[in-house]
Amino acid sequence: MQITVKLFASFQTGRFQCDVRSYPESTLVSHILQELAIPESEVGIILLNMIHAKSDQSLAEGDILAIFPLVGGG
Amino acid sequence: MDKILRINMGAAGGPQQSIEKAGEFAALGGRATTSTIVGKEVPPDCHPLGAENKLVFAPGMLSGSAAAISGRISVGCKSPLTGGIKESNAGGQAAQVLARLGYAAIIIEGQPQGDDLYKIHINKDQVTISVDNSLKLLDNYPLIDKLKQEYGDKVAYISIGSAGERMFAAASIACTDPELRPTRHCGRGGVGAVMGSKRIKAIILDDQGCENRQPKDADKFKAANRAFVEGIRKHPVAGEGLPAYGTNVLTNVLNEAGGYPTRNFKTGQFEDATSISGETQAALEIERGGSATHGCHRGCVIQCSGIYHDKQGKYLTKQPEYETVWSHGGHCGISDLDAIATLDYWDDNIGLDTIEMGVAVGVAMEGGLLEFGDSEGAIRLVRDEVGKGTPLGRILGNGAAFTGKAFAVERVPVVKNQALPAYDPRTVQGIGVTYATSTQGADHTAGYAVATNILKVGGDVDPLKPEGQIELSRNLQIATTAIDSTGLCLFIAFPILDQPETFQAMLDLLGSFYGIEMTGDDVVALGQKVLSLERDFNKKAGFGPEDDRLPRFFSSEPLPPHNISFQVPDEELDQLYNWD
């Protein structure tokens, strides 16, 4: 299945900003974190189709996954 | 900080100054001081630009000491924008210098006859109030350049640009940064107009010969400060994200969450968000020889700001904040960072609140004055209309609500007449509660529920549902009011919300400075007390429950792409101040 993966802030360094990637059925968010060598402890926000998600959530065809480190501002 | 300087600008024969003992204000600071003085001394039904209003400056409880990141200055008055009480605070050097000079507050009252323009110079020996009509209608950058020739670069400047002199409701008060750029503004609520109404162009603060304020318990203070700094540095938001990308790191976050108000709050996503994001901005700043990391005052350990150069590599402005990039960017459909930075420069120069100004321009676009996305047109409006005080500039310079009326716009994003910041309350419902109920009008900093709703700092409350938002906003509004009194930058909230030991270090910092035991309950009590007196002022100024509401369209128009509306019931909004 095709998943659009978006990375932000320091997670872009040495990786990418946005990439449409192929994954097998029943892939979890955590599998993508592992693949990209992003430690879960560094993850601040996961947005799956614009809604906050946990790393044990499974993905479906066409999903948009945005991964941020812990960030803030205002 | 054992004294208060009172200046009566309306005294017969010219401005008169007097020094009072600080009394109860010796151990207070910031918002607690300014709001208490305004609450006691300003008639709530007075005209905000008249002689009865007062303009109060106060450094924070820890300003002028060795406490890290303690450089916020608070300004209070009755707001010409909201008609209620106003507290607006800024960084820059002013708070530290004013505190070292020993002043718990400066109270400016009355109004001079005639059209002379004054400046106030304060050093350790005396206060000099003098007429200087050569400063008339100078904007902030040329004004500071001129004042530097007279007072040098070892001082801090507080000033208004032409917007303040013209008494626009969007006028700010500028404070200089460590390099004497007038870039740190008490932006909200038209405090610059009140300074203009007193005919004061600039305050020059010179602390040469003064020492840092000393803590009562030096050993405990030193240890607490060390733990406090460690806590800030080890937290990913304060220690990594903010210094690397600045506040504008939020553009992508809010956009991906569908909460980025676009083209005057029509949608929650902007298709060009990436091109104006903090990541893009930081890379551009570095590439052009500016800097993505800069502190607004000495002693800042977060350094969330930066220096933005133009295409030729020449200084253009400080790093535009997230709210500014949004108000002049996504809110107006503008995706050109150079245009946004140019608007940031003109806002700082003319002396304007970037949120109010950007939102007003977007509302004018909705009203047909310009097309959304017209960046050249937006610059022209701010620089050539607002900056020159033309009739159109006077409409825009009086803010979003005024502009909305002038152009018959129905969708006007204001609460208590003050423009909403960069988070749509339909998809960040907690911040909607803060916008609706804050004593200040729509103000994200008053109770930053975005942290818990979106950023997942300090807990996790679903941003798309009404449940839990009242309690969240209430607790944050109370805590923020207390932090606004300490002089500490609000961005310490990220580490202290997440790290109990850093919260304790902050309590120890305050406690050891004043020689008392400070607990979390004391912080809550201080916050509640100040909020109650602010609310009391507003009630006497004519505000009721119907003013603690968002504009109707947030309930009636679902926001794409989530397609939901603001769902917190009115009866719950009325329970926010449940201790009062």
Taking all Cα atoms into account, the compactness measure Rg of chain A is 11 Å
The CATH superfamily of chain A appears as Beta-grasp domain
CATH architecture name of chain A: Roll
β-strand amount of chain B: 5-15%
Stretches of chain B where pLDDT is under 50 for at least 5 consecutive residues are none
Shape of chain B: globular
Radius of gyration of chain B using CA atoms only: 22 Å
Regions with little confidence, pLDDT below 50 for 5+ residues of chain A? none
Largest interface: A-B, 21 and 44 residues
Main β-sheet, spatial strand arrangement of chain B: 2-1-6-3-4-5
Task: Record the SSE blueprint.
The complex is a heterodimer of chains A (74) and B (580).
Chain A: E1 2-7, E2 18-22, H1 29-35, E3 43-48, E4 51-52, E5 64-69
Chain B: E1 3-8, E2 16-21, H1 30-41, E3 55-59, E4 73-78, E5 85-90, H2 94-100, E6 103-109, E7 118-122, E8 127-131, H3 140-151, E9 156-159, H4 162-165, E10 173-175, E11 184-186, H5 191-197, E12 200-205, H6 218-234, H7 236-245, H8 250-256, H9 278-287, E13 291-294, E14 305-309, E15 315-318, H10 322-328, H11 337-350, H12 354-366, H13 375-386, H14 391-397, H15 400-406, E16 414-415, E17 418-419, H16 429-437, H17 450-455, H18 469-486, H19 493-498, H20 500-514, H21 520-540, H22 553-556, H23 570-573
Helix pairs in contact in B: 1-18, 1-21, 6-20, 10-12, 11-13, 12-15, 13-14, 16-18, 18-21
Briefly say what this structure is.
With 74 residues, chain A is mainly beta. Chain A contains one helix and five strands. In chain A, 9% of the residues lie in helices and 34% in strands.
